[in-house]
């Protein structure tokens, strides 16, 4: 056994723990289908979003962890539930009135309001694939419509018909009394209107593979459950898909725990083992409220990627998936800097620590070197005090601090400089609040100014930090009050960077001038 495999089998990193649960399914013999199947689901009634990214990213991490433990081949399917009935018109698409005419049709039969594809689901599916491809995910796209119409689900649909009563027994207790009276796990696709109908199943013929239902106009119709003539209700559909494809692993949000429970029971009723699952916590906004697409609270994926690279978002997604996290703009700088801290630490770590390092999972073991020699938080403060309108302004300061760095040799730094300017102007600048120093703080700032003006040593982080610390230590207890004063008086923020590093980046003379402005009341 290789060192990598042995270490992976013992690693406590959550993707490895998840992967071990999948591996346990095949301790005695390999899967009959010849591979382990990972799956993520997507509802194409809307566009892909940050939750879609998180689910595919996390599942990909578990898949890669599994591949370090086993030689069994793997597949990842991203499954689009595009045969679902069109229940309501999204508010963020054109052709609102026309789309109302398509309500209750399968999503692949709904017109494309953007006019680029054969249907609304086809448009959103294409957007999903473009979205996943842009992040370099390795996956296979699957369409529910294709699977139903091509017969890939026929065998399991006939099994579901034979075990109809058992599926109903599992589902009915979870429904209200009125819903129980009309519920059927089969949804006929009307040959008259094309609508996906929520109607009772009046008769079943297992030998013929058909059901009888009543159309809204009163006519009784007999149709086969195969060939795309019916779609299953979504919990039975989820279970049927697991059973038909032999899905081994699928994660979902905490809000679907009950759905996972019911679908797992149905999957067993169909004679198959349900997949291993992880119920991840949902994201909250800044106030701790659950993020809602309809409310528009929280942070979208597009917004994150406006201010930081996708790897930082992957890092955020990696962290403690079972713990609720607040997803708002203030988490971006922290995620960027922590991600690069982990990149810098990686080369010097032993294998065990490397496999516990988030960047190993983010990059599938092929971990790049970080070229962000200036922390993102520092770049934000530099943008603040310099009033930078573009990244070239920041490079004027960076060039002094890191003379060997350039946009070509340090692409992470160049990209982060652009993000920092954008983030500062959009979020920091409108909320900055400078204040005048207290008498004690004024005396300390004057002392720091004098020390810096007389300083003729190397412009290095540690030497300058020593001066800052020495001035504060003589005047403040606790020292935190001194650094809070520096940030609030000079930067207009309640927290900030290691101040010696900031001086080295911004410049000693420039910092003296900044202190003069703070003392003169020109900043507040």
From TrEMBL:
It catalyses: tRNA(Lys) + L-lysine + ATP = L-lysyl-tRNA(Lys) + AMP + diphosphate. One of its GO terms (cellular component) is cytoplasm. InterPro entries: aa-tRNA-synth_I_codon-bd_sub2, aa-tRNA-synth_I_CS, aa_tRNA-synth_I_cd-bd_sf, Lys-tRNA-ligase, Rossmann-like_a/b/a_fold. One of its GO terms (molecular function) is ATP binding. It comes from the Bacteria. Keywords: Aminoacyl-tRNA synthetase, ATP-binding, Cytoplasm, Ligase, Nucleotide-binding, Protein biosynthesis. A motif ('KMSKS' region) lies at residues 290-294. It is found in: Cytoplasm. ATP binds at residue 293. The keyword Cytoplasm applies. One of its GO terms (biological process) is lysyl-tRNA aminoacylation. Pfam families: tRNA-synt_1f. A motif ('HIGH' region) lies at residues 44-52. Its EC number is 6.1.1.6. Belongs to the class-I aminoacyl-tRNA synthetase family. PANTHER family: LYSINE--TRNA LIGASE (PTHR37940). This is Lysine--tRNA ligase. It comes from Falsiruegeria mediterranea M17. The gene is lysS.
């Amino acid at each position: 056994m290789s060192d990598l495999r042995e270490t992976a089998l013992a690693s406590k990193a959550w993707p490895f723990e998840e992967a071990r649960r999948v591996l346990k399914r095949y301790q005695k013999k390999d899967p009959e289908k010849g591979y382990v199947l990972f799956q993520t689901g997507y509802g194409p009634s809307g566009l892909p979003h940050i939750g879609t990214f998180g689910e595919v990213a996390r599942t990909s991490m578990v898949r890669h962890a599994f591949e370090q433990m086993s030689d069994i081949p793997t597949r990842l399917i991203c499954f689009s539930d595009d045969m679902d009935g069109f229940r309501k018109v999204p508010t963020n698409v054109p052709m609102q009135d026309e789309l109302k005419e398509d309500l209750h049709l399968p999503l692949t039969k709904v017109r494309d309001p953007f006019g680029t594809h054969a249907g609304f689901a086809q448009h959103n599916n294409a957007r999903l694939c473009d979205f996943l491809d842009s992040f370099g995910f390795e996956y296979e796209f699957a369409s529910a419509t294709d699977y139903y119409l091509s017969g890939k689900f026929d065998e399991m649909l006939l099994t579901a018909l034979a075990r109809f009563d058992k599926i109903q027994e599992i589902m009915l207790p979870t429904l209200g009394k009125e819903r129980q009276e009309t519920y059927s796990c089969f949804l006929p696709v009307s040959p008259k209107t094309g609508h996906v109908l929520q109607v009772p199943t009046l008769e079943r013929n297992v030998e013929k593979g058909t059901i009888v239902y009543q159309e809204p106009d009163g006519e009784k119709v007999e149709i086969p459950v195969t060939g795309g003539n019916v779609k299953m209700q979504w919990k039975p559909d989820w279970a049927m898909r697991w059973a038909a494809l032999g899905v081994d692993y699928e994660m979902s949000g905490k809000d679907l725990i009950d759905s996972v429970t019911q679908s797992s029971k149905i999957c067993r009723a169909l004679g198959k083992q349900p997949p291993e699952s992880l119920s991840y916590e949902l994201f909250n906004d800044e106030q701790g409220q659950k993020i809602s697409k309809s409310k528009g609270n929280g942070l979208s994926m597009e917004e994150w990627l406006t201010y930081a690279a996708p790897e930082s978002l992957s890092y955020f997604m990696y962290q403690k998936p079972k713990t609720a996290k607040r997803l708002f703009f203030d988490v971006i700088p922290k995620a960027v800097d922590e991600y690069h801290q982990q990149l810098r630490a990686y080369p010097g770590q032993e294998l065990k620590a490397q496999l516990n390092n988030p960047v190993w999972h983010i990059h599938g073991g092929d971990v790049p070197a970080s070229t962000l020699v200036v922390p993102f938080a520092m770049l934000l403060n530099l943008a603040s005090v310099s009033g930078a309108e573009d990244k070239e302004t920041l490079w004027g300061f960076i060039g002094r601090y890191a003379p060997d760095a350039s946009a070509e040799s340090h692409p992470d730094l160049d990209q982060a400089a652009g993000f920092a300017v954008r983030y500062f102007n959009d979020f920091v600048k409108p909320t900055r609040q400078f204040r005048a120093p207290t008498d004690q703080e004024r005396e300390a700032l004057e002392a720091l100014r004098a020390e810096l003006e007389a300083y003729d040593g190397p412009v290095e982080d540690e030497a300058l930090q020593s001066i800052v610390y020495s001035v504060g230590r003589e005047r403040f207890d606790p020292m935190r009050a001194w650094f809070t004063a520096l940030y609030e008086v000079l930067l207009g923020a309640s927290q900030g960077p290691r101040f010696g590093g900031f001086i080295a980046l911004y410049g000693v003379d420039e910092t003296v001038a900044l202190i003069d402005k703070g003392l003169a009341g020109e900043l507040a």
